[in-house]
Design a protein that fits this description.
about 0% strand, single chain, mainly alpha, about 55% helix
Length: about 70
């Protein structure tokens, strides 16, 4: 799953953390993904989650690789 996250993050020019949280947010069984940051740099890695929209293909790829 890590290589899929890396590739999708690069395609969106964002962080792996933002992609992972965006994918979780799109899951119908997840009410709210929870992440915490202790520094401003960590927070900056997480915030793009709110504006990252994954394609259906990317969502499927992440779902498929998460089952392995």
């Amino acid at each position: 799953m890590l290589s899929a996250l890396d590739e999708i993050a690069a395609a969106h020019q964002t962080t792996v953390a933002a992609v992972a949280l965006a994918w979780l947010l799109a899951q119908p069984t997840v009410a709210a993904p929870i992440a915490s940051a202790r520094t401003a740099a960590q927070l900056a890695d997480l915030l793009p989650m709110a504006t990252t929209t994954l394609t259906p293909e990317e969502s499927t790829r992440l779902a498929d690789t998460s089952r392995v």
